[in-house]
């Protein structure tokens, strides 16, 4: 009851004219910046920090919240239209969303994403209000073996459902894990795969890898095929979802927060893992399995709702424990400290107006995001009418700007295009790109958690399976790996399939 009373007071703070205006500006800025390949919400918040020096803390964080949600939706826009995620949380959306855009259903994919963001954010923010103390206490109890098990599940799940060959999926994962090894060992300080270069000592930024494999790799692939396939103009399509679309999306919209919010609240890396798991779940539950990989709308609705709910869950640990689990949360934590405020268990007592005003602004920003972006879906979809040479030249330009903005080093541009050529080669030889991204994002964290678990158990492998949670996750992993074999052994031959005893022909 106290939470609801405090939330009502928070709405009194968030619904003032100044704060509504700042929330709207944040949503618009976040969307526009999120659309640029490689420039996600974390960089947007970081770039706009100096702009807010003259604002009071409550106003500044209301604006940041709008940028957070707007940036996530902007990233999904380029994922759908250009197969170029603006941030890693939008990677899954590119798989089905871009195929829908190529079929002239880009506007429907964007509308599905916008509504999914709205529903996911609403349910996630309600969870933030009601369940923050419970989720925070559960997060504290999760140890290194559990983190490592979750990441192994993500590796296996993503390589098992993508592409026509598991071998190619694991090969792509291995490429990503290798890239993730570049830099200094976090525990020993030993250089790995740096080839004596000081610029590589800090490793290769995930943004550069994602933009290189997706944006640059896709641009090079399209350029290599322009002479052979000039392509036909892609129709924009209707801006609204049909009844058939709604029947297929409402369940993924509601299932997404059930996956996204808990994973966002535990310190396991933000929205990447839950969006992968949402994609896997929706593919397994779908009645239209023949459409997956060719533009299944459930593959947009589920991951987008999941990502939005995960963003709300991320704020649970950031506000209640002072523990950021995403890059954006880390920047927002720095912003809190800039104002002399330390997030943690006492934040709700010391700064109730700020915290509950921020939470209320999440509801307001979510509504503004839907109101502003749903009518803009057909406008964004018109990007597909831009001639492809100009469109992909623009993508390369903004990808280069985004990569250079990461650290201001020319080396990053060189790495960007080297990885872009690698992305082109992966497309040429049929290797799925996504497992490589997963390896880069989760590989270093998985290695760190594995080594911590082994140190605690004095090097014994039993240290990786000494909790009920980790054992449960490994059982799920074994089921995923064995499922194709089980299906092959238990499947009954259909009448159209000749038996071994019957001669063919």
TrEMBL record:
<feature type="transmembrane region" description="Helical">
    <location>
        <begin position="167"/>
        <end position="184"/>
    </location>
</feature>
<feature type="transmembrane region" description="Helical">
    <location>
        <begin position="413"/>
        <end position="442"/>
    </location>
</feature>
<feature type="transmembrane region" description="Helical">
    <location>
        <begin position="356"/>
        <end position="377"/>
    </location>
</feature>
<feature type="transmembrane region" description="Helical">
    <location>
        <begin position="389"/>
        <end position="407"/>
    </location>
</feature>
<feature type="transmembrane region" description="Helical">
    <location>
        <begin position="204"/>
        <end position="223"/>
    </location>
</feature>
<feature type="transmembrane region" description="Helical">
    <location>
        <begin position="61"/>
        <end position="82"/>
    </location>
</feature>
<keyword id="KW-0472">Membrane</keyword>
<feature type="transmembrane region" description="Helical">
    <location>
        <begin position="20"/>
        <end position="49"/>
    </location>
</feature>
<feature type="domain" description="DUF112">
    <location>
        <begin position="20"/>
        <end position="438"/>
    </location>
</feature>
<keyword id="KW-1133">Transmembrane helix</keyword>
<dbReference type="InterPro" id="IPR002823">
    <property type="entry name" value="DUF112_TM"/>
</dbReference>
<keyword id="KW-0812">Transmembrane</keyword>
<feature type="transmembrane region" description="Helical">
    <location>
        <begin position="463"/>
        <end position="486"/>
    </location>
</feature>
<feature type="transmembrane region" description="Helical">
    <location>
        <begin position="109"/>
        <end position="136"/>
    </location>
</feature>
<dbReference type="Pfam" id="PF01970">
    <property type="entry name" value="TctA"/>
</dbReference>
<feature type="transmembrane region" description="Helical">
    <location>
        <begin position="142"/>
        <end position="162"/>
    </location>
</feature>
<protein>
    <submittedName>
        <fullName>Putative tricarboxylic transport membrane protein</fullName>
    </submittedName>
</protein>
<feature type="transmembrane region" description="Helical">
    <location>
        <begin position="315"/>
        <end position="336"/>
    </location>
</feature>
